[in-house]
Amino acid sequence: MTTKKYHLQEQSIPDGFVIFEERLEVAGIQFRKDKALAFVKNPEGCWLEFERDENNKYDKNAIKVIGCRKGLFGTNRYFIGYVPKEISRRIVKGGFWGLVTPRLLKTYVSDTGFIEILFQVLGPRENRNQFKQTER
Fold first, then answer.
1. How many angstroms separate the CA atoms of 69 and 15, rounded?
2. Which domains does the chain have, with CATH numbers?
3. What is the DSSP string of 42-106?
4. CB-hemisphere CA count at 13 Å for 23?
5. Between residues 10 and 36, which one has the greater pLDDT?
6. pLDDT confidence bin for 9, thresholds 50/70/90
């Protein structure tokens, strides 16, 4: 059964924050399909967190995307993939690590097992122009 859920109404933008990146797909989700499916199987009350992966041998700027949901005995955390490489580079090299936060946008699972998890990157309003300048 196909399931699709938009999460924006559940997760408001914190005061003083704006959207830095509008619509990003979790990278590498195909390598963590079991964790991603566990995360999206019950999409109510889900959220995302970022976690640095400084020991990543492929990308020193890597940022993990962790799917979270309240469980019976605390929070269930699922390592579901990464922030796209170019965006994580801009976050880390630009000095925005610790200032930005993810906002879950959409979860989707098709009948064939295709999984899509989209998110936004939020950051402090006063740093938005600086972040946009890192695009160049």
1. 23
2. 3-133 (3.30.70.2330)
3. S-TTEEEEEEE-TT-SS-TT-EEEEEEEEETTEEEEEEEEE--HHHHHHHHHTT-TTT-EEEEEE
4. 4
5. 36
6. confident
Q: How far, in whole angstroms, is CA 136 from its chain's centroid?
A: 23
Q: Name the burial class of residue 118, with classes exposed (0-12), middle (13-18) and buried (19+) by CB atoms within 10 angstroms of its CB.
A: middle
Token output for 68: 């979270």
Query: Looking at residue 70, what is its pLDDT?
Result: 86
The CA distance from 118 to 105, in Å, is 5
Q: Write down the pTM of the prediction.
A: 0.92
